[in-house]
Amino acid sequence: MASYDYLPATVLVLILLAVTGLLNRWKATSRLPYPPGPKPKLIMGNFHDIPTELPWVTYTEWGRQYGDVVHAQVFGNHVVILNSLKAAVDLLEKRAPIYSDRPTFPMLSLMGWDFSFGLMRYGEKWRQHRSLFTQHFRRDAIPAYHPVQLKKIHGLLRDLLSTPEDFIEHTKTLASAIIMATVYGYDIKLKHDRFIHLAEEGVKRLSEGALPGRFAVDTFPFLRHLPSWFPGCGFHRYAQNVSLLLDEMKNVPFDFVRQNMRDGVGRPCLASELLEQNDTQGSSKQQEQMIKDVAAVTYAAAADTTSATLDVFIMAMALNPEVVRKAQHEIDTVVGLECLPGFEHRSALPYCEAVVREVLRWSPIAPLGVPHATTQDDIYKGCFIPKGTTVLANIWAMAHNESMYPNPDKFDPGRLLNTDGQLNVDDHILGFGFGRRICAGRYAADATVWATIVSILSTFNIEKAKDVNGKEIEIKIEFTDGLVSHPKPFKCAITPRSDVNRQLVESTTEV
Ligand code: HEM
């Protein structure tokens, strides 16, 4: 047939194009070096140089040795670490169109976790999901959540009154309770809550499954095409189980919302609002799936981050009694002793605001943010950054930069205030990340964290715990590894400031 006559020529042209492309790429790469970094070994690259424990500390050290932008390579994959705010702003914000992708891991999509727009590739689907989320979590939408946030925070105060030693459990419950109430209109039960169990399991399997090196398929993606009975391919079964769990995690709370809407007992919440819109507009199944996905992302992104931040706050207070006293003095002066603080007091509490900002700076709970990735080759300060590079913002290094924050390990809210006691201009919260992938829930997070911190400070003292001999138990400042880094368990004493405060907490009601 005539069309076959063109085949050899077409193949030749395609080969020529490919060779030219490769040549161009080779020329670019051979002309310009990658950013400086530890010398890679053959095949494995820097696999053995990348630490599994507290990698941000090693990356900060690399920053001192090699500069603000450090390059490493793992089995041919490029990784660039940004150790300064300037480099993060230059690349992740000013060049956002090409630095807003997320790296892909075969295990992530096999498990079904790529439903989350927080981990999704940059593109149209991500844009739609993020925009749906933002409608409900943009700055001016947050005041609608204040009543539910305060109600759940008052529940936390009651929990701290009855079992203060379980404070880590209580901050976790608070973070979950706020999210479940705002997203699904659901009040969690304290023990054995099915929704929370599903959500926690889903998030746990994500951190286990996405752990670098846990499954060979992430290093050798071709393995995904081999059947599950093939030796070393057990990851298929693991992924399938997680995927079933995720389906339940997304669907079960929605069945609850739908049932309540039908019974007319539903409370306004994100899911019911979205479902109503969807029903009245007669939208598609695909639209409903997007609503379920976006709602489910919220739990995954919000619960752990918020509770870890509150645990950092409690640790910082136990270590810094003078900060507790100053903040309490400010609250007593502005709010008085007869009531609990509310959002209307916020602008009159600059010292407390500085405490919140210092908590987020002193120990950022996502020290390396969430990895970004490049969608095009790029050149920065004379160095070549290839398309597909994983880009890590070392938030920990930026927050501990001595020239911006002298004596950075010291917890000192005063560094964020002018001499007149008002907040200084440093209001860039590094802990929320950068550019188009910046934390989409930051306004909700900020409101919850602020209100919890001032509510606890207004009613409780936080001090080091004492042993049976009355000797203070030292607190080790240690954090866990992982995408979200929590303080390692520590003991402290959380006691009501006075009988008046105790009664105030007791007088808050459950309804
Ligand atoms: C103090 C608590 C929180 C901290 C420190 C935090 C921090 C972060 C960070 C560092 C990122 C990655 C940013 C980047 O890629 O540059 C992120 C992403 C995200 N966060 Fe948060 N977060 C917090 C709470 C929340 C809450 C309460 C919600 C939901 C209500 C939320 C929703 C999200 C979402 C959806 C993303 C993914 C954004 C995207 O990929 O487009 N976060 N967060």
UniProtKB/TrEMBL annotation:
Molecular function GO labels: heme binding; iron ion binding; monooxygenase activity; oxidoreductase activity, acting on paired donors, with incorporation or reduction of molecular oxygen
InterPro entries: Cyt_P450, Cyt_P450_CS, Cyt_P450_E_grp-I, Cyt_P450_sf, Cytochrome_P450_fung
Binding site for heme: C439
Cofactor(s) for this UniProt protein: heme
Stretches that traverse the bilayer: 6-23
Pathway membership, UniProt: Secondary metabolite biosynthesis
Superkingdom: Eukaryota
Keywords for the protein's UniProt record, in alphabetical order: Heme, Iron, Membrane, Metal-binding, Monooxygenase, Oxidoreductase, Transmembrane, Transmembrane helix
Family, similarity comment: Belongs to the cytochrome P450 family.
Alphabetical list of PANTHER family matching this protein: P450, PUTATIVE (EUROFUNG)-RELATED (PTHR46300:SF7), P450, PUTATIVE (EUROFUNG)-RELATED-RELATED (PTHR46300)
Name listed for the protein in its UniProt record: Cytochrome P450
